[in-house]
Design goal:
141 residues; mainly alpha; 1 helix; 96% helix
Length: 141
């Protein structure tokens, strides 16, 4: 077996041409495609991280707003309860006052009617005594 130099040179030359063609037509475009894809993936990951950070910031802001609104609602509720309690106390005091006034008026009216009845009775007393005496005397006979 002998080594044919011309065949060896042609084989090496064909191999180098094949490597050059593969590099230009396959490896370079493939590496470029992979680099572009990696850049897109990295950009997507970065955008995802930014979106996550923005979402977390929005969540924190929303929680703070909710706490502020809850505190405001609690304050408004406390104010409303205080106003309601004050209004109830005022209404109760007014009702007690009206009740006391009505009781005074009723007592005054009762005393007035009692005095009138007493005056009427005293005015009719001689007449009643006379009638009673006449009835008693008529009953004994």
């Amino acid at each position: 077996m002998s080594i044919n130099v011309s065949e060896l040179i042609w084989t090496i030359l064909c191999f180098l041409v094949l490597l050059f063609v593969l590099k230009k037509l396959l490896f370079d475009p493939l590496i470029r495609f992979m680099d572009e894809r990696k850049a897109k993936v990295d950009a997507g990951i970065a955008a995802g991280k930014e979106a996550e950070a923005a979402r977390e910031a929005n969540d924190r802001e929303l929680q703070e707003k909710r706490k502020a609104k809850a505190a405001e609602a609690a304050q408004l509720l406390a104010e409303a309860r205080a106003k309601d309690e004050k209004a109830r106390a005022e209404a109760l005091a007014e009702a007690h006052k009206q009740n006391a006034d009505a009781m005074k008026d009723a007592k005054a009216q009762l005393q007035k009617e009692e005095a009138e009845a007493e005056e009427t009775l005293e005015a009719q007393m001689p007449e009643l005594v006379e009638t009673l005496t006449a009835a008693l005397l008529a009953g004994k006979r």
